[in-house]
Amino acid sequence: MNNNFTQNRITFLQNEINKFDYAYYVEATSLISDFEYDKLFAELTNLEKQHPHIITPDSPTQRVSGLTIPEFNTISHKVPMLSLANSYNKDDIIEFDKKVKKELEGEEYEYYAEMKFDGVSMSIHYENGYLKQAVTRGNGIQGDDVTPNIKTIRSLPLKVKDVYVDGALLSDFEVRGEVYIADDDFIKINERQEEQSLKLYANARNLAAGTIKLLNPSEVAKRPLKIICYYLFSQQI
């Protein structure tokens, strides 16, 4: 098998598997049977083992590291990750609106409200289109580098297409979002725990938070983590 053919075959397999992953984990559509998918993945894994110099950071095989993490490094956020304040009554909302009105000094404004995903806040950095680093919120100023664990989330791209804002191509940017476990998946996990006479997990958010802090990415990959992103930041904007 010549090098050109091998390179082309590896690229083809990577693109196909990424396409199938996007359809399954993002669009909830299955384009291929599990058996066929596993065959393609096994072929890609085998070819990359034979030709490790061809492996790229965005290859589907790079989502799960076989190595455990000795410890999490502490990383400072470029921009603090602030948290939302809780409100439990109408008076709190009225008081908040008064502060907004005062700060805006007569300018018109409006509110946009949406349901909050109850997950674990995450900051994800991309450089030249490749996922470089994922950091937890931590104390808002510093967080833990959990990149190997975040890479196991199949709906999160290891490489993104070109990102433009106002016509400018962003080469270095950060997205923020919430890592969570869906209610249906949480119920299934606890059902399996009960079948094995193991302790049940308290709630989906705590399970997601605990999973993110596991030191073995292979174990993290077994949990159905999902992510919703809501914020884009770049010094180029």
Task: Put the structure in a nutshell.
With 237 residues, the chain is an alpha+beta fold. The chain has seven helices and eight strands.
What is the domain total for the residues?
A: 2
| Beta strands, count | 8
- What share of residues is helical? 25-40%
Whole-Å distance between the termini?
46 Å
State the secondary-structure class.
alpha+beta
CATH superfamily of the largest domain: DNA ligase/mRNA capping enzyme
Report low-confidence residues grouped into runs of 5 or more: none
Indicate the overall shape. globular
Could you please say which CATH topology of the largest domain applies here?
D-amino Acid Aminotransferase, Chain A, domain 1
At CATH level 2, the architecture of the largest domain is 2-Layer Sandwich
Q: How are strands sequenced across the largest beta sheet?
A: 3-2-7-8
**How does the major sheet shape up?**
4 strands, antiparallel
Task: Characterise this structure.
The protein is α+β, with helices and mostly antiparallel strands and 237 residues long. The protein has helices at 3-25, 34-50, 90-104, 147-150, 183-195, 204-212, 217-220; strands spanning 74-76, 120-127, 130-136, 142-144, 164-165, 168-169, 172-180, 226-233. A 4-stranded antiparallel β-sheet has the order 3-2-7-8. A two-stranded antiparallel ribbon has the order 1-4. Strands 5-6 form a two-stranded antiparallel ribbon.
